[in-house]
Design a protein that fits this description.
about 260 residues; about 20% strand; phosphoric diester hydrolase activity; HAT_RTT109-like
Length: about 260
């Protein structure tokens, strides 16, 4: 019983301490399936988001950006939708992705085709953009189909990886994990209205604590996407709030104080 009370107390200290010491801003916002926005990359960038996501298919030696293979269209590639715009921002901002040199941007690249060939193609393409891969204000994060979790450390230092909370990483591989992403529905069926039930809240907080103990932020995908849910996630200490509603989340995070 004493052990259980201690663990509950530790959870409350970590979660409450994290949220009290951290002011949430658009740097905590993640544009989910960003390529489906009216202006991929630019909409999230204009609002100052800290993270954007692109699904990538390796097709005929090209890195096509789409949600499904049937949606692949000419002119919608990783290079044209994300890498070229990133380079233009860096050049405009004297070597930084944002005008504020303290701001960072994560580009999550979700590999939808076979992990190793797709990742190899991503690495080859990124090497054509030294102003991106040598830039401390940008983090390239590989998610989706990934290489073996025991071999993350062998890949170039300019890429990081999306972590899996169910896996126990060795130190040198954990060092390559930038954040943890988890399916919200693995922890809760809450629909974003009212408050999550106590079991859901406990499960979510346990996941947040596990990520925090590893020194990483967490993002829940498939989560409720409304103002009430954003308030709850902020209070819990979710590192990146996942959204398809860029303008609304930006408004929520920017105009509250």
């Amino acid at each position: 019983m004493k052990k259980e009370l201690f663990l509950i107390g530790l959870l409350m200290i970590v979660v409450n301490g994290y949220t009290q010491s951290k002011k949430y801003t658009v740097a905590n916002a993640h544009s989910h399936n960003d390529y489906e926005q009216r202006k991929p990359f630019w909409e999230a960038y204009r609002h100052g988001f800290g993270s954007v996501e692109a699904d990538v298919f390796l097709v005929n030696h090209q890195l096509a950006v789409a949600h499904n293979a049937k949606d692949i269209r000419p002119g919608r590639e990783l290079r044209s939708l994300y890498l070229d715009p990133l380079r233009s921002c860096i050049r405009k901002n004297n070597g930084f992705v944002y005008a504020d040199p303290q701001k960072q941007l994560n580009l999550l690249i979700d590999c939808k085709t076979a992990g190793i060939p797709t990742l190899d193609a991503i690495i080859r393409e990124l090497k054509e953009y030294p102003d991106i891969i040598d830039n401390k204000s940008i983090r390239i994060v590989i998610t989706g189909n990934q290489p073996n979790k025991d071999s993350l450390f062998i890949y170039p230092a300019f890429i990081g990886f999306d972590g899996d909370l169910t896996y126990r990483y060795s130190g040198k591989n954990l060092d390559r994990v930038v954040l943890f992403s988890a399916n919200f529905r693995d922890y809760s069926q809450w629909n974003g209205e009212g408050m999550p039930d106590s079991a859901s809240k406990a499960a979510l907080e346990k996941a947040i604590l596990a990520a925090g103990q590893a020194g990483k932020p967490i993002r829940f995908w498939g989560a409720p996407d409304n103002e009430n849910a954003w308030k709850i996630f902020e209070g819990m200490g979710v590192g990146f709030i996942n959204t398809d509603k860029i303008a609304a989340l930006s408004q929520f995070l920017t105009h509250r104080f």
